[in-house]
Protein: Glyoxylase, beta-lactamase superfamily II
Amino acid sequence: MARDGATDADVAAAPLRRVSLEVPTRAPSGATNAYVVGDCLVDPAARNPELDRLAESGRIDHIAVTHTHADHVGAVADYAAIADATVWAPEAFADRVADAAGVTPDATFADGDAIGEDGPIALETPGHAVDHVAFAVPDRRHGEIGDADGTGEAGEAILCGDLAVAEGSVVVGPGGGGLTAYLESLRRLRDRTPTALHPGHGPAIEGPESVTATLDRLIDHRLDREAAVLEAVEAGASDVDAVVEAAYEKDLTGVADLARATVRAHLGKLLAEGRIDEEWRDRIDGD
Structure:
């Protein structure tokens, strides 16, 4: 229910608001994007004066996160207390949200459920993290796909967390949802033909053509890396470090651990598909 003089219609029509929060993160931007849509706050990674004002004024009724990595959950408990807001979690991962955010969720959701009444729609998108979800919201800025003046039915924007980024790529390491799941999640978003993506880090990707191009780029990047990893194994690389050295041509200073985690995930996928020998199981798990 809307508070502080705002009607439910006012809240439903409120534009999407992005608030950049400086937090300890490996993302190149050095910040995590929190989003406010209607009366829902997504990914409050840290306290912020703008978010404080919204919470204190009673404009936040619901809080959700795209996943439980530390750079997305840091202020969930604070804003839940300040706003007396309902904290939501995926029904399969409520305990993970409680452990990561330091507050027990009040409600759970399944794939396709709304957060609150007429709030963002949850979409299961594992890969970067096993508990990763995205949230679909109306995109009134772009209108219906193909509607240049934006006067038609709203398109669909997706708060995509760490599933996609405008530039670069996303780390998918062991212990996350896995590369097979990550690729399926990217394809799921692409099939929905959204008109905008709003990532957890970095700028928005706006317009259906840009969104499709970005999702295609991320899919192709993963498949190209997979091919490089398989080529390295077939050429005689016998451990994870040797595969990393062969599969990456760029300087890995500062990100070598992330590259190594990604290679392990690629090797795990290839092993599960029977494309590399079983002897790699101990090499992946032991490194």
Q: What stands out?
A: The chain has ten helices and eleven strands. The first strand starts at residue 17 and ends at 22. Residues 243 and 267 are 9 Å apart (CA to CA). The radius of gyration is 20 Å.
